Amino acid sequence: LSAPGGVSLVVPQPNINATVAQNILLSVEYSCRGVATIEWKHVSSWGTTKIVEWKSGNYVNISTVYKDRVTTFENGSIQLLNVGMRDAGYYFVTVTEEYGTNTYGTIIVNVYEIIYEDLHFVAVFFAFLAAVSAILICFMWLCNKSLHLFQKKTTHKLTASTTEEIELETIEC
Fold first, then answer.
1. CATH match of 8-113 with 3.40.109.30
2. Per the UniProt record, which residue ranges are transmembrane (predicted)?
3. What's the half-sphere exposure (Cβ side, CA atoms, 13 Å) at 143?
4. Distance CA 33, CA 105 (A)
5. What pLDDT score does 2 carry?
């Protein structure tokens, strides 16, 4: 993006997805002829908050809400530490040249929670499946053993009755 006064601003990553407690880099690159003032604002459903404002090579004014969570860089980028759900929203950066020309950039940040209840449910479900599998395997083993015992008794009965018939036949002759 280039403004008439010679201020340009590039936003290489306009969408950022992060999880709670992660650090994110709101990356931009600006260039201008004179001294620039960089200002970052956060806009969300909770309202608009000024994060930081600084002049290249001079002062840095960080809002008290972000005091221990923001790092500024000479290229205009900022790093936001330990993001939370309230950090989701639009981040607007304004680069203003000393002659009054300015340009704007926007980064959309989505913050997601890792829901441990879902992981807990999955772990319990797999434990349940493992227990059911173990019970079924034991049941199949018992059925197999019972079948073998039943077959042995049946073959013994058959052998005994067949032998009696043969003996009876030979006696009758």
1. no
2. 119-143
3. 6
4. 18
5. 46
